[in-house]
Amino acid sequence: MKVLIVGGGGREHAIAASVAKSSKVEKIYCLPGNAGIARIAECAPIGPMEFDKIVAFAKEKEVDLTIVGMDDPLVGGLVDELEAAGIRTFGPRKNAAILEGSKAFSKDLMKKYNIPTAAYENFDDADKALAYLETAKFPIVLKADGLALGKGVLICNTLEEAKEGVKEIMMDKKFGASGNTMVVEEFMTGREVSVLSFVDGNVVKTMTSAQDHKRAKDGDQGLNTGGMGTFSPSPFFTDEIAAYCQEKLFQPTVDAMKAEGREFKGIIFFGLMLTEDGPKVLEYNARFGDPEAQVVLPRMKNDIIDVMEACIDGTLDQVELEFEDNAAVCVVLASDGYPVAYEKGIPITGFENFEGKEGYYCFHAGTKVNEKGEIVTNGGRVLGITAKGETLKEARANAYKATEWISFANKYMRHDIGKAIDEA
C-alpha cells in the first residue's frame, strides 16, 4: 500500500512510525512532514489546509489510504473532499469532526443524551456572559468554542479574572473566530485521564489510557500549552472505571452522533475528569492527542493499518486491540519561551544516540532541515522523547535519561512528567 499522512507534528511522526511497521505498507508520504518524518516518508511542502493540492497529490501518487492527523483539516472537511475524489481516508467527515470543532455543540450533545459532563452555559454575547458571571461560583472555566491549538481554555479563580477572560476571548478575539461563541462551565476537580479510541460509526474500542501535562512549567504552573509530556497507562483508570465509561460515556457518544446523522469514523479522544461523582467528559477531540499518541502508539501491538481499515469498513467489532503490558513516558523538549515567543533555526545534535536503542523514540514535532543540511528547531515544541519501561517509574527514568542525548541551545523541558504517580 501507499499511505499518505496529513500533518507535520509529533503526533504525525508517531503515526508514521506505526504505519512504517505494517507489512502492508511499501511507501509513506507526508504533507508537509518534518525532519524526522522525512527519514521514513517522502515529504512535500503542502500545508494541511491546502485541500486542492492534497487531493491532487494523493491522486498523482495513487495513494491507497490517507490519514488526516490534525484537527484543522478534519474540522474544515478535508476527509469529505478526499472521499469525493475517490480516495480512501481515515478520519471523521466534517459533520462529525464538529465534535471537536465546536465545544458548544459537544456540550449540547452531552446534555441532550445524558452523557456526564460539567454544568455549563453557552454565550455568543459578551455582555450576557459578563452578567452571568456576576452570579457564578468560582473557580470557573471559560472555553473558546472553536479550535485554539489546545490553548483556548481559561481557569478563572475570581470574578475579575473571568471578566478579563471574556474580554480576551470574545472582545479582543485572542483566539480569532473561535471566540465568537464561548462556553462557561463549572470547575471540576479530580484526576484527569485521556482515553483515545477507534470508532467505526457504531463500535468504539478504546486504546490504553494516558495522562497529559498541559502547563508550561513544573508543578503545573505557567501558561497552557499544546502538551509538555505524557505517560501511559494511567493507574487511576481502573478496569471498573473503564467499564463504567464504556457504558455511560464512550458508547453513548458514538450512538448520539449516529442519532444526529453525524456518523463518526476515526479517532475520538475522550478527555475525562474522574470526579467524586464519577467520571465526566471534559472535552472531545476528533483525532489522536499530541503528545498522547507518542506514548499510546508505541505500546500498541496491532497493525495500525488493519485497525484503521476496520474503522472505515465498519468491521471494528472483528478487531481485538492489544497493548503491551508495560508503561511509556514522553517528555517534550521545547524552545525556551514557548508558548509565547521563542527563537527558531537552532541546530540540534544527538539524534544518533537513539539508533538501535530498543524502547527509545525521538519523535520530531517542530523541526526542519536548513540549507546547510542541519536539523534545526522550527517550532515551540521541538521533540518528544519517549521511552518504555516495565513500570511507570522505569519508563520515566529512561525518558529523562534519553533527554540528555539531545542538545540544542534553548532546550527547555518540564522535569516532573509523571512524577506525582512515580512517587505515589
Number of helices: 13
CATH topology of the largest domain: D-amino Acid Aminotransferase, Chain A, domain 1
Please report the total strand number as a whole number: 22
Structural class category: alpha+beta
In CATH, what is the homologous superfamily of the largest domain?
A: ATP-grasp fold, B domain
Global shape: globular
> What's the alpha carbon Rg, rounded to whole Å?
21 Å
Give a quick account of the main beta sheet: strands, pairing sense, barrel closure: 9 strands, antiparallel
- Look at the structure and give the CATH class of the largest domain: Alpha Beta
Weakly predicted, low-confidence segments: none
Task: Give the tally of structural domains.
Answer: 4
Task: Walk me through what this model shows.
With 424 residues, the chain is α+β, with helices and mostly antiparallel strands. It has four domains: 2-90, Rossmann fold, CATH 3.40.50; 119-186, ATP-grasp fold, A domain (Dna Ligase, domain 1, 2-Layer Sandwich), CATH 3.30.1490; 191-318, 2-Layer Sandwich (D-amino Acid Aminotransferase, Chain A, domain 1); 327-423, Phosphoribosylglycinamide synthetase, C-terminal domain (Glycinamide Ribonucleotide Synthetase, Chain A, domain 4, Alpha-Beta Complex). Helices cover 29% and strands 28% of the residues. It has helices at 10-20, 51-60, 71-76, 78-84, 94-101, 103-112, 126-133, 159-171, 239-259, 293-296, 304-313, 392-403, 419-423; strands spanning 2-7, 27-32, 42-43, 65-68, 89-90, 120-123, 140-144, 153-156, 182-186, 191-200, 204-212, 215-217, 221-224, 229-232, 265-275, 278-285, 327-335, 360-364, 367-369, 375-377, 381-389, 411-412. The strands form five sheets. Strands 10, 11, 14, 15, 16, 17, 18, 21 and 22 form a nine-stranded antiparallel β-sheet that branches. Strands 3-2-1-4-5 form a five-stranded parallel β-sheet, with helices on both faces. A four-stranded antiparallel β-sheet has the order 6-9-7-8, with helices on both faces. A hairpin with a 2-residue loop joins β15 (265-275) and β16. α7 packs antiparallel against α8 (159-171). It starts with a strand and ends with a helix. The model has no long low-confidence stretch (mean pLDDT 95).
